[in-house]
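Revision sheet: structure tokens.
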Amino acid sequence: MLIVAGFVVSLSGCKNYSKILKSPDNSLKYNTGIDLYESGNFKKALEFFDLVRSFYQGTKKGEKLTYYTANGYFQIKDYQLAGYYFQQYQQMYPKGAQVEDASYLQAYCSYLQSPRAELDQTMTYTALRELQAFINRYPNSSKVEKAKQLIQALHQKLEQKDYNIALLYYKMEDYDAAITSFQNLLNDYSNSTRRELYMYYIAKSYYTFAANSVPDKQKDRYEKMVEAYNNLLYMYPKSQYLKELKPLSEKAMKHL
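Predicted:
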């Protein structure tokens, strides 16, 4: 064992890895990969892990290789492959020593792949599902609080995307769509810090929508504007938006 270890160190020192990669000695390749991984050379270690992981599958060494492979990809910021191998670790070694960590890190990899709000949010929904699954499976884990924080951040990103869409409708003067979108924001994000803003846009949109409507539809829309204004006044009596909306509400009342 000491001779093999010395041989690994010697070859590692001169970086003559190609000979070991071509060697039929799986034990030597395993030990070299582990040595590289534990010294922080993750990219080179992964080359060795790929060669021997299937050979040791189902064993303690195989379990270690699968987890190290996942974490190796995580360390080099390849979160797609890291997430894949963290998932594989859980499937292949459901009673493994690192299964809780693997469950969290799989979800965290999806979180890290979640794009900015302007882009498609498929990965965001994947991350939300995986983070919630982790919390459900390990409710007493020390990582639960962090998982909850990540979930909150993802919800904020989804809210930002929906807000961008609602605001775009408003700027395009599609007030009907804007009202629906801002109302959906109120319904979908009940704890949002922007509820006051959404209520402002609903009232403002109703007023402009009514003003530009045919006469027989104005009454209903002015009524809804006044209602939206009163809701804002009730919920936020010191709102900065009341000064702007109050005269509009008064004008709407005159139309009624």
